[in-house]
Amino acid sequence: MMRESLPQWDYVIAAYAVLLIAMGALIAWSWYTMRRAEKRRGDMKRQ
After folding, report:
1. d(CA 20, CA 7)
2. Spatial separation of the C-alpha atoms in residues 17 and 37, rounded to whole Å
3. What pLDDT does 9 receive?
4. What are phi and psi of 3, to 5 degrees?
5. Spatial distance between the Cα atoms of 37 and 4, rounded to a whole number of angstroms
6. Cβ-count burial of 3 within 10 angstroms (0-12 exposed, 13-18 middle, 19+ buried)?
7. Consecutive sets of 10 residues in the chain, 47 residues long: mean pLDDT of each?
8. Residue-level pLDDT at 42
9. What is the pLDDT of residue 2?
10. Residue 30: closest CA among 38, 42, 18, 19
């Protein structure tokens, strides 16, 4: 059987997967940056 229409749900699932991966990367990057800034602030307070 041939499919004449595009499988829309495949694109929806792929879009959500890309979104979740991008959000995960953004959260990880933000957490890393926050931790680095807190460490630098703590080092400056000790000096």
Report:
1. 21
2. 30
3. 87
4. -100, 125
5. 54
6. exposed
7. 73 96 98 96 87
8. 92
9. 60
10. 38
Model pTM score? 0.70
Identify the pLDDT of residue 28.
98
Stated as kind and residue range, the H or E segment containing 8 is helix 8-46
Q: How many CA atoms lie within 13 A of 22 on its CB side?
A: 6
Tell me, what amino acid is at 3? Answer: R
**DSSP H or E stretch at residue 20:** helix 8-46
Amino acid at 8: Q
